[in-house]
Amino acid sequence: MTTPVSGPGDGTDGPSIRPAERADLLAVVRIENESFAQPWPYDAFERFLDEPGFLVAVRGDREVAGYIVADVAQTFGRQLGHIKDIAVHPDHRGTGIGSALLSRAIAVLTARGADSVKLEVRRSNEGAKRLYRKFGFEPLRRVPNYYENDEDAIVMLRKLQ
Ligand SMILES: CC(C)(COP(=O)(O)OP(=O)(O)OC[C@H]1O[C@@H](n2cnc3c(N)ncnc32)[C@H](O)[C@@H]1OP(=O)(O)O)[C@@H](O)C(=O)NCCC(=O)NCCS
Description:
This protein has four helices and eight strands, in the order E-E-H-H-E-E-E-H-E-H-E-E. By secondary structure, the protein is α+β, with helices and mostly antiparallel strands. The chain has a single domain, classed as Gcn5-related N-acetyltransferase (GNAT) (Aminopeptidase, 3-Layer(aba) Sandwich). An eight-stranded mixed β-sheet has the order 1-2-3-4-5-6-8-7. The longest helix is centred in the middle third of the chain and has 15 residues. It starts with a strand and ends with a strand. The structure holds coenzyme A. Coenzyme A binds next to strand 5, helix 3 and helix 4.
């Protein structure tokens, strides 16, 4: 089911956000490869196809411009949302697509009972950290050498209720 945030028919040219489908995966993996030094492989995305928090932003008819992967897990009796991956095609960054994906994913996690959402971000990824701060995420702790190049991760958390 497609639930546009904006797009054809409502007088704007923004992308539609909808659950990811198998036919989107090649485009998703292409964006992933252009976005990360340690990209997720195809089958990592395939495993999340039934997950309501795996969303794509689609421009026009079918062009996948970005995606987000998020889920909810029971941790110490709490329902903890987790933003696992988010990227926007380099040609379409800075146009609000990342914000639209994050906003919709947070709505999905809230609807699924999450009481907070966490994510990991590279310490050097200032653009992503700014995006997350704009959405109310606060740095919680640093995980030394989290990434393969020994870069630290910053764990960020936002309470939902
Ligand atoms: C991070 C990413 C998903 C943001 O997507 P986007 O569509 O460009 O984001 P938006 O256009 O919605 O921008 C939202 C906010 O993010 C921040 N931001 C995003 N990219 C930025 C950059 N390169 N420099 C500074 N701020 C940036 C800004 O605060 C911006 O808000 P503003 O426009 O009001 O200033 C995108 O840059 C991307 O795919 N990066 C590569 C992959 C990545 O690093 N993913 C995050 C892994 S933790």
